[in-house]
Amino acid sequence: MVRLLVKLALTAAVGSLLSSNPIAAQELPPQARAQRVEILQGPALEVAHDDLAIVRWITTNPRGDDEHFGVVSYGTDREDLSQKAKGHIRLNRAHPKTIFRVRIEDLKPQTTYYYKVTSTDSAGESDGAESPVNQFTTPGPGERIVANPSQPGPQPK
User: What pLDDT digit, counting tens, does each position of 16-53 carry?
Assistant: First the structure.
């Protein structure tokens, strides 16, 4: 009889572990959106190769939906920033600031690009902060620029 009770207890414990959904248990309802989002730092070029660049900026936490996107509108003409690059992030509710990093690919070497940044929630609704137009020039083939390294020290090629 004791053996049967132990078997039942173990079966119940294992069954509850296997059928629980810890992800759903951790999901929280969205926070209220921030009334005003500000760009606190940047945007700035973090690194550029001959065919890609990473742009980084810091904003106040936009709150709202945890799933967000940093968006860079860019092009080779200051008046035509119709190309878009997006970088997905998940907001940290405990932090007052949010760091966005967006990778822009398929660039041409030794070309000047103009860009501006913003951020959106998962539905594509803007957080309301948009930078002025900035620019960077991609390096020549095989070269790279480390303009705003995330870690100090020498950068391997």
Answer: 555 555 555 566 666 666 678 889 999 999 999 999 99
CA proximity to 87, closest of 52, 111, 49? 52
What's the structural domain count of the chain? Answer: 1
Q: Alpha-carbon distance 92 to 132, whole Å?
A: 26
In a domain? residue 70: yes
Mean pLDDT, range 79-100, rounded to an integer:
92
CATH number, domain of 77, equals 2.60.40.10
In a domain, 83, yes or no: yes
Residue-range definition of the domain harbouring residue 65? 39-146
Q: Is residue 29 part of a domain?
A: no
Say whether pLDDT at 10 is over 50. yes
Under 8 Å between Cβ of 137 and 112:
yes
pTM above 0.90, yes or no: no
SS3 content of the chain, % helix, strand, coil (to 5): 15, 40, 45
